[in-house]
Write a structure and sequence with these properties.
Largest sheet: none
Order of helices and strands: HHHHHHHHHHHHHHHHH
Distance between the termini: 35 Å
Number of strands: 0
Strand content: under 5%
Subcellular location: Cell membrane
Structural class: mainly alpha
Protein name: Multidrug export protein MepA
Keywords: Antibiotic resistance, Cell membrane, Membrane, Transmembrane, Transmembrane helix, Transport
Number of helices: 17
GO molecular function: antiporter activity; xenobiotic transmembrane transporter activity
Radius of gyration: 21 Å
Number of domains: 1
Shape: globular
GO biological process, one term: response to antibiotic
């Protein structure tokens, strides 16, 4: 891709009106996130027809998928953040090195996980919280997910590299096509071919392969600004460490989400398979809801990265303000809907299990009460990650499901039993909201100083 195309993209990202620019990039990203969440929920929905233990197994293996996502997002968003700032500073060759290094590193990680995961699959499932009745289902589901680990993790990198260039629509096409295919294949493999829970996993991996091929074709057909190639890999530790360091907030966010899910499953398992299934369903529902917020934030990230790299600090402020306000409104509406329709939503996945319905409804309503304040934590974390402040971003990303969640999931069930399990996440959300303010105060002080220096010169 010519340098002229890169310059044209830089001009678009640093001059187009902020609301239109962020919305244009965010809509395809939201669609991608929604489709991803929907096909994860489709697995839960179709598998729930097989029974409560099978539903619980999806929640167990979701922890494994979260680990794959954690590394994929670390390398993908780490690469993407650096690429946005490099393209904003007109450093095209350096951006290509970062993209290739992140992509091939993800493939290498996936292959290692496949080998070790298949060798130790039973202990791994037990470690993730599988009970004796859930273990056979979890094993059948997980072995196919492990076989596709390299494809899954590298797809996250391809997706994020395209978004970092401002090519969100291309990224959306690959994710959406795979997601829709998964929804179609799930009932065919599970019920028509009588493969049970293994059929859901096969459908997931086939759809992931299709997504990967579509995303890769964008680079092979030169639809991307950047070229991926083995020759472009940087073997310098500084470059790989820069990717990991920049993507570390995503690793903590996704990795801690996996640990939090395991801890939730382990604590819920004390109260039986119904509690594990209910918390699994609530987790999938909120993954769908939060995909709207995260999708909007991911549309914002390349804008703030490009403009910070180009020294357009006033546009950085405008981007943050616009994204935060819109996110608060969206989550407020979804929180209200969740409070009202919680029983109906949970009922979609219960197969007439009254205990799952009762536990799930309470947990969902509790999380909805804290939903409307979540945007501040997400947007703050994404902002610091995009402008090259990994320490602040890493700490904030660790708060929701690490710094606050992990102590609470140990303490609250001791005090309030199952209610403590259900209330852990909303209380962690409230504490994360509070802790964002000092970080943002300091950030805006520094940003205003940069703007004043520019205006003075």
């Amino acid at each position: 891709m010519s340098s002229q195309a890169t310059l044209s993209q830089v001009e678009k990202m640093t001059t187009q009106p902020i609301p239109r620019l962020i919305t244009t990039l965010a809509v395809p990203t939201i669609v991608s996130m929604l489709i991803t969440s929907i096909y994860n929920m489709a697995d839960t929905f179709f598998v729930s027809q097989l029974g409560t233990s099978a539903t619980g197994a999806v929640g167990i293996v979701f922890s494994l998928m979260a680990i794959i996502q954690a590394v994929g997002f670390t390398l993908g968003i780490g690469s993407g953040s650096l690429i946005s700032r490099m393209l904003g500073a007109r450093k095209h060759a350096e951006a290509e090195k970062i993209a290739s290094t992140g992509f091939f590193a993800a493939i290498a990680f996936g292959l290692v996980l496949t080998v070790f995961g298949l060798l130790f699959i039973d202990p791994l499932m037990a470690l993730l919280g599988a009970t004796k009745t859930i273990l056979p289902y979890a094993r059948d589901y997980a072995k196919y997910i492990l076989l596709g680990a390299a494809v899954m993790s590298s797809s996250f990198v391809l997706n994020n590299v395209l978004r970092s260039e401002g090519k969100a629509t291309l990224a959306m096409v690959g994710i959406t096509a795979g997601g829709l295919l998964n929804i179609v294949l799930d009932p065919i493999f599970i019920f028509t071919f009588h493969l049970g829970i293994a059929g859901a996993a096969i459908a997931t991996i086939l759809s992931q392969i299709i997504s990967f091929l579509i995303l890769l074709s964008c680079f092979l057909r030169h639809k991307s600004l950047l070229h991926l190639g083995f020759r472009n890999i940087s073997w310098k530790w500084e470059d790989l460490s820069a990717i990991i360091k920049t993507g570390l907030p995503s690793f903590f966010r996704q990795g801690l989400a996996s640990i939090a899910t395991v801890m939730l499953n382990v604590n819920a398992a004390v109260y039986g398979d119904a509690a594990v299934a209910a918390m699994s369903v609530v987790g999938k529902v909120f993954m769908l809801i939060l995909s709207v917020l995260i999708g909007f934030g991911q549309g914002y990230q390349p804008v703030v990265g490009f403009n910070y790299g180009a020294g357009c600090y006033q546009r950085v402020k405008q981007s943050f303000t616009f994204t935060t306000i819109v996110s608060f409104v969206m989550m407020g509406i979804l929180a209200a809907a969740g409070l009202v329709f919680a029983p109906q939503v949970i009922q979609l996945f219960t197969k007439a299990d009254a205990q799952v319905l009762e536990i799930g409804t309470y947990a969902m309503r509790a999380q909805c009460l804290a939903l409307f304040i979540q945007p501040l934590g997400v947007i703050s974390n994404m902002t610091f990650q995009s402008i090259g402040k990994p320490a602040e971003a890493t700490f904030l990303s660790a708060c929701r499901q690490g710094v606050f969640f992990l102590p609470l999931i140990i303490i609250l069930p001791q005090l309030w039993q199952l209610r403590g399990v259900e209330l852990t996440q909303p209380l962690a959300d409230v504490l994360t909201f509070i802790v964002c303010f000092p970080f943002l105060f300091k950030f805006f002080q520094e940003l205003n100083q940069k703007i004043a220096e520019q205006e003075g010169s």
